[in-house]
Design a protein that fits this description.
Helix content is 80%, strand content 0%. By secondary structure, the chain is an all-alpha fold. It has a single domain, classed as Growth Hormone, Chain: A (Up-down Bundle), CATH 1.20.1250.20. The longest helix has 37 residues.
Length: 427
């Protein structure tokens, strides 16, 4: 009788979903408590925006090193260290009062979160089949943007009961508990996990998109010869620039543009992230289905990513043309859903291009994405003070046009590594 395959890899996908929730709750709760925090610490919008910029600076600078370290030491060790590190600095955010120290804490918080996505990319390359990576990549991303769905409600409740400082203490403690769970259950390879039966192991080994399992160093000199290596980074700069703007400023935008309370803005900030959550999962599922139908990776990844950008641009235009609060929320929800689809395809394409070195390629992509995220909160805050929120949001359509053009050069059907001969040069 044929052995029925276990599905341990999909349980790990759920664990990554939870990790994504915790990570982005840690990152986004600061936007919900912005008015209280700015008042108590005497920060203006530009100074508050710099908190997010310092986080993004630390996060961006560690992307490429994190990809290398995840490939060298494995995602189990790297993610354990990351969870403990960023949770500790989440707690410290609620303790420090000095502006300079606060910027340092948020920078080091960013350093701690940096290994999360590159580690996930390495894990997915070894644990999932070629036509499962879209869904696998989307689980962490979906968790990341389900975090902001529930963060406003939970954060406001904690603030009402215990004050804004307690938000960081509670979320930091949850992250440390999650680190303990991960280090107990995780393994770098399915071959090492006792709960993976032979049927699942054979399936993964026969269908995963890697060249070899031997350890080797990423051939950066070869990567830099491909324009697709630059194109995927450039378009992701735009993706994260836009997401960071909404992540940090959306509640403030609602309170200032429509003169509503912080509590109401918290509730209205959740639907956009909920739509993004659903469309990230949908995009990954559709992308993998297209691959199973025999479509090219450009169709399955690239065209879906371009469609996401188009949906964002059209919906944003409609959002800023309406004076009705609820219509605005609906169109912004569609905006973030579109950009979420593009983000999911970016990570799937990075693993397609990188294969064995998905950690390095995704780290490179996320480096540039988070340079965008580093610049966005500060620039958006300053622009909003000068030209208003409507004109600030309208400006976002321009970089999206350039990002759409770049996707025609990403070429996920042409991996940066072709075969074992590529590895011999870099061992």
């Amino acid at each position: 009788m044929k052995e029925r395959s276990s599905n341990v890899r999909w349980w790990f996908a759920i664990v990554f979903f939870v990790i994504g929730i915790v990570a982005y709750m840690d990152r986004s709760n600061i936007s919900v408590i912005a008015p209280d925090m700015m008042r108590d610490l005497h920060l203006d919008k530009g100074q508050f925006g710099l908190l997010a910029s310092f986080f993004a600076a630390g996060y961006a600078l560690m992307q490429v090193p994190s990809g290398y370290l995840a490939e060298k030491f494995g995602p189990r060790k790297m993610l354990t260290v990351a969870l403990v590190w960023w949770s500790a600095f989440t707690i410290l955010t609620g303790i420090v009062k000095n502006h300079g120290l606060m910027y340092t804490v948020r920078f080091l918080f960013g350093v701690g979160e940096a290994p999360m996505y590159p580690s996930n990319a390495v894990f997915n390359s070894y644990w999932f089949a070629k036509d499962e990576k879209g869904r696998a990549s989307s689980m962490l991303l979906a968790g990341s943007y389900f975090g902001p769905v529930i963060a406003p409600v939970i954060t406001v409740s904690i603030v009402s009961a215990f004050g804004w400082h307690s938000v960081f203490y509670i979320f930091g403690g949850v992250g440390i508990l999650l680190a303990l769970l991960w280090v107990i259950i995780a393994k770098d390879l399915p071959e090492q996990h006792k709960m993976v039966n032979e049927a699942e192991k054979r399936f993964i080994q026969a269908n995963r998109d890697i060249v070899a399992t031997e350890k080797s160093h990423a051939p950066w000199s070869a990567f830099f010869k491909y324009f697709s290596f630059y194109a995927i980074a450039g378009q992701y700069f735009v993706v994260q620039f836009i997401i960071a703007l909404f992540l940090i400023w959306l509640p403030t935008y609602f309170t200032e543009q429509y003169h509503i309370s912080l509590k109401d803005s918290a509730w209205l900030s959740s639907p956009p992230w909920l739509v993004m959550f659903f469309l990230i999962l949908t995009g990954g599922t559709v992308s993998d289905a297209l691959l199973r139908m025999g479509k090219s990776r450009f169709v399955a990844r690239g065209l879906i990513a371009i469609a996401g950008f188009v949906v964002f641009a059209v919906s944003l235009f409609l959002a800023i043309k309406t004076d009705n609060l609820y219509a605005n929320v609906a169109w912004i929800s569609t905006c973030l859903g579109g950009i979420g689809v593009t983000m999911g395809m970016s990570w799937a394409a990075a693993t397609d291009l990188g294969r064995n070195f998905a950690g390095s390629v995704s780290g490179w992509m996320n480096l540039w994405g988070n340079i965008g995220a580093m610049l966005s909160p500060f620039l958006a805050g300053k622009l909003a003070d000068i030209i208003g929120w409507t004109n600030t949001l309208e400006c976002m359509i321009i970089p999206v046009i350039f990002a759409i053009i770049l996707w025609f050069f990403v070429k996920p059907d042409q991996p940066l590594l072709i075969g074992k001969n590529d590895l011999k040069k870099v061992k």
